[in-house]
């Protein structure tokens, strides 16, 4: 297994197989950890950064937590490969663009990614399709335990795990789900959703996290505080109080649209979207996200029956700029990508 | 033959069979005539208006110039029927909305329409598909001669035929062509076209004449002055000097688009247009005009091969508001029309 193989396969989280996958695309948990006796990354000397990367890489690779995975040295990786890993949600933009030694260990099915020398020394992530937060937490705790056999985490008796950013101090746990909320967008109820998230101290953000816009009705919902709560409390509040409300709210909006007086207006949008995806000769990312989002809604509502949900999910990823270039094995400008994107979409959608 | 049959047939001018029909949809010539010894319409008393309508109707019907046609008493006609005749270019908006006795005689193939009590006592029109101005002028002169056997036209030795509006005095002849100029629109060269028309004392207007906007890249080009020139001069200037330039200019622009670096951009527009027309569940008139215009271009460029040009031409007419309602035999609001329009377009385009 190596980096170049990634574009040939679908990440586990795109399989649209998990629970509540109509609304919850994927579940993600992340732990932030730092080595005791070493400064945070931003305070490290270059030689300490190099030492950290070598030591952590060695232990992660030796620890067997990656299964049949591989390690990517991001300092040596090409910009296009780094961008591809960002698009696949396997590394952060921060890690992609950093200037010091750094890397990421990725399991073969891409459910596990361990970033070395991100803002914290280690950031471990489990990413799974649908609503699988409990399983993801179990899995990340096993990884944390395995690494703790080898490494000594910076831990404070009163505060908990110490992290570079205060918002991560405590459990170091961030949980998030990627939500598809097209009906709430269409019915103009997203504002309410944003208010509700704020009231529950949750963050609702665009597809690629902080500071990115919400593309094609996709949102990341995550907890904001990790201090003063146990893992158990954080997970329970998130999965039992907040999330079911969002899912139900979106499903009600879909039902109202699909069976109410605006039914024809909705069908019009859905059938136009699939027609454009199948016919356009040029398409930019924004339009693609907008149209695929409507098609995803159409598949979930049973309006479109000849395209599997997994194909739609995969297209979101395959048509991102870096994926497109890696998949077709040539560098392209925006105009060339728009043409290649349209062609790829057409081909994939006509295969079914 | 009667009014209700009109929606079941395609007007001759939609057949896309005449010369230069890629650019020239139709050719129209019109003569304005007034009876000697009677005031212009706007100066008539109500009883004079009634007398005029009865006398003119009688002579037109008896004259045999209508072939196998029929006369429509517009005072008795329903608003929807009057609107339908406007959409078919058989009467003017002015005549449709006037409040006094008036009517129109229409030949079975709709090439001839004689409006009674328009701005002038009689306005005779010949409308034919493609570039057939010479034939149209021959035909209208025969009609004029036939009616002159029965009626005495207001004529002045120095000015020529007298008309209600000074711009028609002289020959009373207006010639016009409906042009489809999508490529000049796409290449941003329409401004030049408008300037050229003004320099040649020609008027370039929207689809339904004065004061209407140019819908879907369709324009009416017509002569502006009729005084001080013979019929022959007017026709020669128009058909030999002005028109060939427009046709050539549009054809060059099409060629540049279809075979130049913007080729993919053009294909993108064309294939999106046909896809939307075949898939939308709601469509308003403006969008329909825009999309059908692109499809018409696509058919003419050989990009779309499974739809005859006549089908495209007919759809422009059949999907106009009044036609839609007469064809489906029910009154509809804008929203209902948008749904019915989308359905009708889809059906017509899938028949091929």
Q: Please, could you describe this protein's structure?
A:
Two copies of one chain form a homodimer. In chain A, a hairpin with a 3-residue loop joins strand 6 (155-156) and strand 7. In chain A, 45% of the residues lie in helices and 15% in strands. Chain A starts with 23 loop residues before the first strand and ends with a helix. Chain A has 352 residues and is α+β, with helices and mostly antiparallel strands. Chain A folds into two domains: 3-254, Glutamine synthetase/guanido kinase, catalytic domain (Creatine Kinase, Chain A, domain 2), CATH 3.30.590.10; 263-350. The radius of gyration of chain A is 21 Å and the shape is globular. Chains A, B: One of its GO terms (molecular function) is creatine kinase activity. Chains A, B: This is Phosphagen kinase C-terminal domain-containing protein. Chains A, B: One of its GO terms (biological process) is phosphocreatine biosynthetic process.
Feature tags:
homodimer, 352 residues, alpha+beta, Creatine Kinase, Chain A, domain 2, 2 domains, eight-stranded antiparallel β-sheet, two-stranded antiparallel sheet, 45% helix, ATP binding (chains A, B), kinase (chains A, B), ATP-guanido_PTrfase (chains A, B), ATP-guanido_PTrfase_cat (chains A, B), creatine kinase activity (chains A, B)
